[in-house]
Amino acid sequence: MSTTEVSSKIEYSDSENRNALIAVKSHLIAGLLVFLLMMLAGLAMRAAQGTWLEIGADLFYQIMTVHGAGVVGAAMITSTGVQWYFLRQYVRLSNGVFWTNFFIFLTGVVLILGSIFVGKYGGAWTFLFPLPAISMGAWSAGAAAAFQLGLLIIGVGFLILYLDFGRAILARYGSLARALGLTQLFGKEPVNYKHPAAVVASTMVLIVNFMGIAAGAVVLVMGLVNLFYPEFKPDALLMKNLIYFFGHVVINATIYASVIAVYELLPRYTGRPWKTNKPFYAAWFAIVFMVMGVYPHHLLMDFPMPTWALITAQVLSFGSGLPVLVVTGYGALMIVYRSGITWSTSAKLLFLSMFGWAAGVIPAILDAMVTVNRTFHNTLWVPGHFHFYLLLGLLPMLIGFAYFLAGEGDRKERPKAVDSLGFYAYLIGAFMTSMVFLASGANSIPRRWAVHLPEWIGFAQAGTIAASLVVLGMLLFITRALISLPGANNPR
Amino acid sequence: MYPKAKQAWLLLAALVILALPPMQRFLEQSMVMHMLVQIPALAIIGWMIGKILPENWKNNIAPWNRWGITGIALAIIIMTYWMLPRVQDAAISEWPVELTKFITVPIMGMALGISWPQLNPIAQGVLKLEFWATFMRLGWLYLDLPDRLCANYLLSDQRVFGQLLLLAGSIWAVAWTLRITFGIKIINN
């Protein structure tokens, strides 16, 4: 039963709906496949650190670069598929623009892959000035430029898509403030419990990603200028600020785009509506600013940063995840509690994502303390945080949505043995992967090191075993998606 | 509202005033005046000429300018050309280049004025963000570059120009943000 009724959903023609479904499936399949490849890359890196696989340092850093950029790209394209699927039900979105972004994205991916595996670029996704220009012969300026150009092109594609979101939202709601529910929050309009959560979340994502991409559009071009005109030396700290603003906002926004699946699907599975209300609007309004304000927690060790910026980053980082997490986590618990929910794989994954999201922010909050950060930030503690957050928070939302789209919810079937095996292999593997990273960080093992000291190898080997379980789980999910998704009808 | 003929004469007069040698010297004596006053003034004149073009002229142009794409492409090419520092230098020291500027920049404004309303809102958004990003990128470059880009202008002038570009870009960003955040139904479905 569909309980997130809204006064008027948008009507599309059958051909538009068919085309849209193909587009969403393409986003999901492409994104999940990239995730799988990136997991294999991660597994290879952990195995190399654990001395179970021989990889040269140059190839290690190329793999690390593709892993970082690839995971962010896969998260963006897959979460956008989820977001677009639900948002188009409430505002009139263009299939053409959605496809355009997809093909621009693929073009950017080709450039990035070429820069890394042909041009040997291994300067990490962060392309921090001045590293791309001073590779000491490891890669050429052209390779670094192709990498940054690839990111720039992907940004342009998403910008086009967000402009379509903005156009459609403004056409229906008149202003972004109204779409965010601010007119209801501040009493200008009566509270409408049926105001779609998908619109509120999409408006937030639109605002922050627009800002993030704008910053990226500036900093990437400045990096390109430096590559070809080395006399131009921009302020390194300003470059770092813009890069982290861009990167942190973009990856952080993927979870806020994907959580729409929780708002839309848990009500279907529990038979209870997800009502939007004032605390919900307040939380999403707060998160607009928090997502944009927390990135300096990556710069806590940059002593020339203004003290006020660092204090703000620390305070915002403490609170950043909380508003939306509280309303979403509490809301999810409330609608599931004694609802008689059928624990399909989709429902399990969506519920798991609440845990991953809630628990995944805790290491980040610890790392955002200046005193802890000084010791922890350049260790594997930080990958521990974001692997927890992404593997157990973001990906379960995306895979849960894939199961829904494959028609699992319609059939009301119990999970098959292979789904259960995939679920538990993934859950245990992802949890172990993250915990091994956190334990490594707590033992001061540095991150971004191709070769590990003998004392650290045990951790890397444990991490390799954990990563193998993640790959096994993901492989089962992907196989299922590839078999079921292409022919599945639009779920009712 | 002035009749079209009167508007045309006023615009022509404005163009002539801008082309008068004392005015030219005054507006080209600093990079800020050259880039932020003279060139925008020429473009605005072109934009307004585009508005008052006879209908049959507009009808003749229309088949060549579907969805405003040709006009915008032309405007972007001209704009990019006049952003090159050596061209600015050449305009000051060589009269044929100066003449080219007085012809092409109003054409750019005209092309923008005719084509912008026809352009898809998504394309308008992409271009607006790109123009904004150009302000910020160039502002930063002009502020940080160790060398003079134009032989005719001082480094200090270049820096002031960079600061003003950053200021203009920031004001634009804030204005745009406020408009779409609190504005009322600005685009019809």
UniProtKB/TrEMBL annotation, chain A:
One GO cellular component term noted in the UniProt record for this chain: membrane
Answer whether the UniProt record assigns the keyword ATP-binding to this protein.
Answer: no
| GO biological process, any | aerobic respiration
Cross-referenced PROSITE patterns: COX1
Question: Keyword S-adenosyl-L-methionine, does the record have it?
Answer: no
A Pfam family for this UniProt protein? COX1
Supply the PANTHER family for this chain: CYTOCHROME C OXIDASE SUBUNIT 1 (PTHR10422)
Q: Could you identify this protein by its name?
A: Cytochrome c oxidase, subunit I
The species this protein belongs to is Nitrosomonas eutropha (strain DSM 101675 / C91 / Nm57)
Automatic annotation (TrEMBL), chain B:
Whether Transmembrane counts among this entry's keywords is: yes
TM segment ranges: 35-53, 65-84, 163-182
Going by the UniProt record, its keywords in alphabetical order are:
Membrane, Transmembrane, Transmembrane helix
UniProt-recorded name of the protein: Transmembrane protein
Q: Does the record carry Transmembrane helix as a key word?
A: yes
